[in-house]
Amino acid sequence: MKKLLIAALASTIGLWTVPAQAAEEIAVIVKTVNSTFWQNVQKGADAAIGQAGSDYAITFQGPASESAIADQVNMVENAINRKVAGIVLAPSDPDALVPVVKKAWEARIPVVLIDSQLTEGSEQYYQSFLATDNKKAGELAAQELIARIGKTGKIAIMSYVAGAGSEIGRVGGFTDYIKANSELEIVGPFYSQSQMATALNQTTDVLAANADLKGMFGANEPTAIGMARAIVSAGKAGKVVGIGFDGNEDLQHFVKDGTLGAIAVQGSYQMGELGVQTVVKILKKEKVEKFNDTGVVVVTKDNIDQPVAKNVLY
């Protein structure tokens, strides 16, 4: 009887000391952590995981730069090896990330893409894609530039990483619209590798070599900041019309002081929030859409203090 009592007591103690089930990990892997755009994506992801409850937790990481594609591939590989519950991924390269996303699919780990697409034909390996319609966003930037400088003259395109999914749509949409709706001559594109200092130096050289330049398009956050700083340094503010992309504090300042005529701003917070929410839905066996447009707002000096702009600026 005494032995039975001891055994029962030991069993009871065992029940009390069983640890709570660990939260399922959702890995959020972006193009770089060294950008306020992607940091704003993290804020959205954090908000979504807070709403999802204690069953889920996120990890957030990205390479030191958007051009460090091999590093991002390794991060996805490591997440698969950790057997995460799901992955939110902003792929830096449309081709290089396909094999590792396929590997996640084979491991039955759902992948939700944000911001940039993978190569056509890889759709079966991910469950949903959340992004700005980059082609449409590029067209909006082109419309804004034409409205400000007219349909003749010379413009420059300051781009970021050649071949990135978002770059193909965004710069492609901008270029196609300019060619179809104006006689503007295009200089470039020039690729900054998403490095502000590189964009500054490239823009300085372009301005020096093209005294008759009327406008410029800076196609992502670090590129647009470098472009705007070069315009100021060259004494061209108010003379060369700059259209930027994304909406951090530096770019907002350049809109307010007139260095940039406008910025096309994506819903970066929404990408992080909806990305995590979508993975949670998939894990709960709920239906999700294959594509969701997270939108873009053209922000100018006239609307920068209005709710339509404040909802996307960061």
UniProtKB/TrEMBL annotation:
It is found in: Cell envelope. Gene3D superfamilies: 3.40.50.2300. Residues 26-287 form the Periplasmic binding protein domain. It comes from the Bacteria. The keyword Transport does not apply. Keywords: Signal. It holds the Pfam family Peripla_BP_4. The keyword Aminoacyl-tRNA synthetase does not apply. GO terms for molecular function: carbohydrate binding. Belongs to the bacterial solute-binding protein 2 family. This is ABC transporter substrate-binding protein. One of its GO terms (cellular component) is cell envelope.
